[in-house]
Amino acid sequence: MGLRWVLEAARADFLGLTVDYPDALWHQAKEYSDWVVDPVRINFSSLEQIVLSRPAAERLLMACAMGGLVGIEREWRQKDSGLRTNMLICMGSALFTIMSVVLAGENSPNRGQVAANIVQGIGFLGAGLILHAKNRVLGLTSAATVFVVAAIGMTCGAGLYLVALVSTAFVLLALQLVGFFEMKLAWKRYPMIYEVRADVGSTLPMKVVGEDRAEAIAEDVSAALHRMQRVILKVLDSAGQRLSVLDRDNVAGIERVAFTVVATKKVHTRILGELRESDATDQVVTYRDTEEE
User: Fold this and answer.
1) What is the mean pLDDT of residues 162-169?
2) Distance of alpha carbon 5 from alpha carbon 8, whole angstroms
3) pTM
4) Phi, psi of 152 (to 5 degrees)
5) Which of 149, 168, 184 is the last residue of a domain?
6) Could you tell me the CATH number of the domain that includes residue 276?
7) Residues 42 and 175 in one domain
């Protein structure tokens, strides 16, 4: 029996495959496989690495591909956990899963000891992605994505390619289609930044226009500013929303007030329409919150 057949049989034994080899070849391969994954042996020869490198490389490449697919979706949404992060998490989980079997050895009753600690490590990583901002919790979807990407990596490390592929498809469907239907059905409450602008004018110094004229201009500016503020409060009160000002300034006589509203699509449409119809505002623009999941 040649060395090539022994290596093939040892590889099949390591992967748990059922192949029709002679009993003598299986016995020799079994001894060689046990010797390769002996936990006492920390150093591996070139021959030992040949047995393990091919299946390990296949699993790591599959993990990179699956993590990359999820990472592309996250990158497209401009999230912090993007392409590289998800690829590294998925590949790292697969590598830990492979090494857990190799280091434990064939006769060890606990071959998943190293892989079991992946969940704890990913838990710390996911906790770092969750942020508390005023009345909102941000990053829950990103943290959950990191968690499931690690699980896909472990699946690839175990050699379950079909399960990993189906799981990745489910993740992409959940991130894309489910969110799309939530928006269409107006179930999802999402943040929107409103910027209300009004030409209230600018005050002029008394030395230039005189005291009476300066006071009249200041009163007009104050009245226009109050009208805009009352309109904003009235519209938000009717929608059951609280005013939380993000920024406020005056640029060349244009008063600008920016605030965030977390509501459904129907409520956002109503608020935007009422603000634009008011005579106290000259322009109302909206921006999508970059931290939105």
Assistant:
1) 95
2) 5
3) 0.64
4) -65, -40
5) 184
6) 3.30.70.60
7) yes
